[in-house]
Write the structure tokens for this entry.
Amino acid sequence: MANSRPILIYHAIFAFAVVFDAVSWWDALLTQNIIQAGSLVLFNLMLVAYTIIQYFQHKGLMDGMTDSTMDHFITESKPLEFALIAAVSTVSVILIALAYPIHNLFSWGFYERLGADVQIRRLNLNYLFLMTLLKLDFFFFISYTVSMVTLVLTHHRLGDTLRIAITLPLSIIIIALGFFGVMRENKPASLAFFVGLVLGIAYLIFEVIFKTLQMGQLDDPYVNSRPFLYFFEAVLLILILLTLGYGIRCYRNYNRGLREAHRQSIRIPAHMAQAGEQGFGSDSGRRRLLNRPQFQDIRPLSNVEID
């Protein structure tokens, strides 16, 4: 019975991943976030890897259970797990095929919202990278913490319980500081966010070393969870380093006009509607987008002359 608990947790994480993937795709299409769309293609490839790891982990957890009920469960679940791997792999291939047309469509969205100012577009690209990384951080932080729940449910270790109780709320607070800091260009919040990321790196390194030292012991609490935990820890370390790098780049770009450009892009829907009617691919549409005034040249709405 204890061995079945990790399986339920891993299946719950996968279900959460599918929901996160669907919501993130909807958000990427709604906001025309080209970086988020590209990262979700990679995220789907990670889901393929996760389903494969899940299959072998499931197989290892069930070794030694020979009662007829469990044998029947294993026999019935294997075809479903293979079907799951095939389905996720197929979706990933389709998304890879759609990546190029989505890239072209969203590229024109940059002109639609921000015009042809190269500096503002570069600042916005860093901003989109950081926003995407923060969303991925949220998913992997939560999933990693939930995966640690298997240790509490199975071994009832006080140390694991305390780490979960501390890391879950701290992870949410750190990510919230990241969103608030970059969206409001708030330097104190961003600095606190950077400190939290550094602490997160130190914590993950500690967890990797601690789990490795427990390997081979008779009372090894990670024997059934180590592959999943290593997977999440490796991905999290990479994401945190990337988030820290892009966070610092965005921090250095505060008060350089990006926030004002975002505000202006919301206040000029008439240009977007007319360009959409003419088509992004037409010559007239391109001329209109390229000749569009930049945010610093746009006057208040009451003084704007509508074509």
Residues 268-307 have pLDDT under 50 and may be disordered. The chain has one domain: 4-263. Residues 68-114 form the longest helix (47 residues).
